[in-house]
Amino acid sequence: MTTSSSGTVRRHLLAAGTLALLGLARHAGAAGAPAAPERVYVSDERGGNVVIVDPQSASVVARIPVGKRPRGIQVSPDHKLVYVALSGSPMGGPNVDESKLPPPDRRYDGIGVVDLGAQKLMSTYQSGADPETFALSRAGKTLYVSNEDTGMLSAVDLGKGVVASTVAVGTEPEGVAVSADDRLVYVACETANSVYVVDAQSMKVLAKIPTEKRPRAILLPAGTQRGYVTNEFGASLTVFSTQDYKVVKTISLGDPQAVRPMGIASTDGKLIYVTTGRFGALLEIDPEAGRIVRTFANIGQRPWGLALSRDGQKAFTANGPSGDISIVDLKSGQVDARIAVGGSPWGIVAAPAVPAGH
Q1: Cβ(209)–Cβ(195) under 8 Å?
Q2: CA neighbours closer than 13 Å in the CB half-sphere of residue 49
Q3: Which of 93-111 are b and which e, b meaning 16 or more Cβ less than 10 Å from the residue's Cβ?
Q4: Does the first or last residue of the chain, that is N or C, have fewer Cβ atoms within 10 Å of its Cβ?
Q5: What is residue 79's three-state secondary structure?
Q6: C-alpha span between 348 and 318 (Å, rounded)
């Protein structure tokens, strides 16, 4: 009896040990599984494409035709789709007499939906007139579009592909951001020199936040009660409270005749990065101290769109006139690579890759 009992105990101990080792092996395998490689998605306004770039190899992976004037661009929460704003309005820009441009063709307005697995345009959703930029709700069910020509903000139901509701905001709306709880939408209106705060459910304007001249892009860092707006003609950053919608301070970013703040990004809100258009630099800003920490000069020709790598170590900028994007190492401040994508790069976003065919 003693021998049999001891054998049984030994067998149970061996079995338990084997199961524990198998559990550890599975855990180690899961923990050691490599993260999906990163991809950078670029809207080519002049060429009518979404360009997929592999930042590790500094090469173009694919070029997907999407329609006219792709500008604002975002990736769906599951990383399987790219949404891109398309417009039938003619291209303007510096030194262009807009009175001599042809009339807009609204047939080409919409939100292009790109299937990243198939690498093709899947559909074009309604968007309202002349969509420029937009923001996705955190739930991924609604897309909020700035309609520049009509001074409207449109809410697009992504389940149906239609405009569910609209609200009039200031003139020439551009940058859009959504609060972390999906309750509020913020839209920067260029010639109104204001950010409009909209209730996402009722689509009513709740407040208007004054900015300096020509506000462009909005950042709402997670876990903070602050919002940041780049002011192109004010050469500044407006800092506002997301509690009472009051301006907290304005951070000067240089000479308004030279510095043109455009894109904005941050991983944690402690350091903020801003592109500067024709000034050709990327600025690193300490928002708490209200000052520029570093200036990364000569990163590209008229950098506009801006995205950060998921580890926060690289910045990606879209450089329109030179038809390329830059990869900037944020530790050294050096440009690792400039990748020719062709056309006129406008918007840029980074996300984990989706294998072709999935």
Answers
A1: yes
A2: 16
A3: eeeeeeeeeeeeeeebbbb
A4: N
A5: coil
A6: 6
